[in-house]
Design a protein that fits this description.
Helix content: 55-70%
Mean pLDDT: 90
Shape: elongated
Number of strands: 4
Low-confidence stretches: none
């Protein structure tokens, strides 16, 4: 009898627990989009081009900013230093990336695409743009602009979000919202 009473109490406590409502939890959508788009792109790029998604991200950043440092890549796209270093070596071994010493600081490396790297970049970017077109195909031009604006604004909030520590004094000054649609009681 005591065991069934404990089960009932545990069940009752579970029912009153606040849980995420994934249908309205924004972070869930960011995570799903990032994970599923990355894994789909990685499979496709590896199959068609022999390039993984991290290699592509490094390659894309080098095309955007020729003579970029690995530290800058890390800063812009949030990859860890080890991944940038590893993938840069792979791209260099494949002949897509040239690595040179920075004349102003010999400890710092500058990355640039080789002619072969630009050829590969130009092939992959067409696929990347078509994937983006398909992702946004149900949105109007105005909706796409609104989405980009919202993504830029929320991306800019990442340092603010990541500085949050519930045990710190900063946590006490954070405004609490009234219960929203992103949680529900179970």
């Amino acid at each position: 009898m005591a065991t069934s009473g404990k089960k009932a109490a545990a069940e009752q406590a579970r029912k009153k627990r606040e849980v995420l409502n994934l249908a309205h939890y924004v972070t869930y959508f960011y995570t799903v989009l990032a994970n599923k788009l990355s894994s789909g792109a990685s499979r496709l790029y590896l199959k068609r081009f022999g390039i993984g998604i991290i290699e592509w991200r490094v390659m894309a950043m080098v095309a955007i900013e020729p003579d970029i440092t690995p530290a800058r890549i890390t800063q812009v796209i949030g990859l860890d230093k080890a991944s940038v270093s590893r993938e840069s070596r792979r791209l260099e071994e494949k002949g897509y990336l040239a690595v040179a010493e920075d004349p102003s600081n010999q400890r710092r490396k500058l990355l640039s695409l080789t002619p072969l790297g630009y050829e590969m970049h130009d092939r992959i970017i067409q696929v990347a743009l078509e994937r983006e077109r398909r992702l946004l195909s149900d949105l109007s031009a105005d909706e796409v602009e609104t989405l980009v604006d919202l993504l830029q604004r929320t991306t800019a909030k990442i340092p603010y979000v990541n500085e949050f520590d519930p045990g710190s004094t900063a946590a006490a000054t954070t405004k609490t919202r009234s219960r929203s649609k992103n949680t529900m009681m179970r």
